[in-house]
What we know:
The chain is α/β, with parallel strands linked by helices. The chain has helices at 9-26, 51-58, 74-85, 104-111, 123-137, 153-158, 178-188, 203-214, and strands at residues 29-35, 42-48, 94-98, 115-120, 142-145, 163-169, 189-199, 217-224, 238-245.
Amino acid sequence: MKPAGVPEPATIHNHFEDDLDDLRARLILHDETVDIPGSNRILTITRPSDTDALLDQAAGDPEQNLPYWSELWPSGIALAAAILEQPDLVRGLPVLELGTGLGITAIAALEAGADLIVTDYSPESLVLASANARRNTGREPRTVQMNWRDPDQALLDEFPDGFPVVLAADVLYERRDIQPLLSLFDRLVALGGLLWLAEPGRPPASIFLETASRQGWTFDTTTSRGPWPDPKDEDVIARVHQMRRRGQITP
């Protein structure tokens, strides 16, 4: 017998479909295929067709939450590839993704067996990330709407010792983000835990890494040249960093 309080699968499916139908009523969506470098995995990703319309909607946002989530960024694809190459680093572990976007990294983490929670400031991102995950893996992550500048206190309280693994792709855009992100990662990543960070070589990322090293983080870096879905990104070299806090993971 199913325990009390656990919804039937049809209920979960209908809720998922309702959210996606609502989004389709507000945005024009289309499907694109994404090859994951270094693997034979090809994903089908649903995403908005008109990013200019999203930019117009965000024009009055005092937090400047631009719709970065709607793009197919090389960093997220490179991080997905890295996870598929080393699935044992997330398998069976509580994993948090900061800024899930369209869910490409989330798909790889779910396929690798992570117990995954994804966050994004955009509710549209969370709907599409869940839809893309379900379409490509048959599973959905748990979702939390959150602006990383104002972390969800309930999530922090649920994992007071942090997560063994935190994933983040393309979160470093401006120098002003460096110290707030480091402070947040200090709270989110368990001692001895892994921050798996991907970025395309913007100057703030190099400053972030130098600052993190001074504050006790260690890291190993690999690079990826794609191929990427957008021809405009053909010269992008994504850097993927496995960063660790010194110490031991609390049992």
